[in-house]
Design brief:
This protein has about 400 residues and is of the alpha/beta class. It has a single domain, classed as TIM Barrel (Alpha-Beta Barrel). The protein contains twelve helices and twelve strands. A six-stranded parallel beta sheet has the order 7-8-9-10-11-12. A three-stranded parallel beta sheet has the order 1-5-6. A three-stranded antiparallel beta sheet has the order 2-3-4, with no helix packed on it. Strand 3 and strand 4 form a beta hairpin. Helix 1 crosses helix 11 and helix 4 packs parallel to helix 5. The longest helix is centred in the middle third of the chain and has 24 residues.
């Protein structure tokens, strides 16, 4: 049975709603860093070059940053979508310009009835973790150049594309400064490595060491985003969850699914870290992780606290913290999605498409999501499709 809605049915469903897509990605143009870098760093910043006869994204002395030169887009130039692993071998010339060009992206948004998009990176890692592969000067330059380019992208979009700033996660003072600089440039949120403690000498995010960053983020109304795969440990396209006899495409399907659950670990740590007692107005976002697992996570945390940590006192329950401080987004979930939204909280859920990544909703994103959304009342639908993201990221809807 086809659960997709036609274009006409979708228009009726979203009448009067300016839809905000809470998670998309940029396939970075090859000259994003080199065209903006000072002369002394042009041959060291992230760039595409030939390595062993093949294109590859590299940083510094040919340190690889990604799977070859792949733009990690599954949308062909003609607008058709790949549903196999062939996209890993594609180059930027093979994909739809909407993955990397502002005007083409805006056209895709118009064609799919998306008013605004939140944008995340590829090359430096979903949490900027790849910057950790080089020295301090090159690290900060790569982060700052990316954020400068994202501010330009946002300005050039006419208030419709809102990239999240990367942070120099290895240094709390620099992270505070970059959050302040991102805010001054008009960016609406920050994106951070979920596991900085995996690098020698850096405390984990629960440590009061990071309180200066959380205070700054709260004070500037800059939500802190945790994209799936936002650390060296969290990002592995195939993972280790599959059994050895599985084919490569099945391994990818299993590994990609496990990435979503990786954010359950991040959210569990945040909810029980003490951060939310010390910073009651901060906003955290679980990005590209879906929402079906959240009610179970909140229930099991409460149960396990009562059973195994009864002496540990928090101001609120995990569910209460989540309702006050945390947001998440969904895209492909359709079975009982309205009930899941109600359980998580209609004020805490956003809609995304993950364009142009594998599993993205395309070419009819709202039509694919509409069957579940149709069972929500209009007020709830307006919040999930637009209002929650507009409030969180300070996006004007007028």
């Amino acid at each position: 049975m086809d659960m997709n809605f036609s274009a006409a049915e979708t228009l009726d469903l979203i009448e009067g709603i300016k839809v905000i897509d809470a998670d998309t990605h940029l396939s970075e143009p090859h000259n994003l860093w080199t065209s903006r870098a000072p002369a002394r760093l042009k041959d060291r910043v992230p760039r595409v070059k030939m390595v062993d006869g093949k294109r590859c994204w590299v940083i510094d002395d040919d340190i690889p940053l990604s799977v070859g030169g792949s733009p990690i887009s599954v949308i062909r130039k003609d607008g058709s979508k790949s549903r196999s692993l062939e996209f890993f071998s594609w180059q930027i010339e093979d994909i739809h310009a909407g993955a990397y060009d502002i005007e083409a992206r805006l056209q895709v948004m118009d064609e799919t009835n998306i008013f605004a998009q939140i944008v995340y990176p590829n090359v430096l890692g979903f949490g900027g973790q790849n910057a950790g592969k080089v020295d301090a000067e090159l690290r900060i330059a790569s982060i700052e150049i990316f954020n400068d380019a994202m501010a330009e992208m946002q300005a050039g979009s006419g208030g419709r594309i809102f990239p999240m700033a990367l942070l120099p996660w290895w240094d709390v003072d620099q992270s505070v400064k970059e959050t302040e600089r991102a805010k001054a440039m008009g960016l609406r949120g920050v994106n951070i490595n979920s596991d900085p403690h995996l690098h020698k000498g850096i405390p984990d995010l629960a440590d009061p060491h990071w309180d200066r960053l959380w205070e700054t983020s709260s004070g500037l109304d800059m939500p802190v985003n945790f994209h799936i795969g936002a650390s060296d440990a969290a990002l592995d396209w195939f993972g280790s969850s599959y059994w050895p006899s599985e084919s490569m495409d099945v391994r990818f399907a299993i590994g990609s699914s496990m990435l979503f659950f990786g954010n359950a670990r991040v959210m569990a740590n945040i909810l029980l870290s003490g951060i939310l007692d010390r910073h009651p107005t901060i906003k955290f976002v679980s990005v590209e992780s879906g929402i079906g697992w959240i009610p179970f996570l909140l229930e099991t945390l409460e149960y396990q606290l009562a059973e195994n940590a009864a002496g540990r006192k928090f101001a609120l329950t995990p569910a209460e913290y989540f309702a006050r401080n945390v947001y998440s987004s969904f895209w492909f979930e359709r079975r009982n999605i309205a009930d899941s939204i109600r359980q998580v909280g209609v004020d805490n859920v956003m809609f995304e498409t993950d364009f142009p990544h594998p599993t993205c909703l395309y070419p009819n994103p709202l039509g694919q999501a509409a069957a579940g959304l149709a069972t929500l009342d209009m007020d709830s639908r307006r919040k999930v499709l637009s209002g929650n993201a507009a409030r969180l990221y300070s996006i004007p809807l007028i």
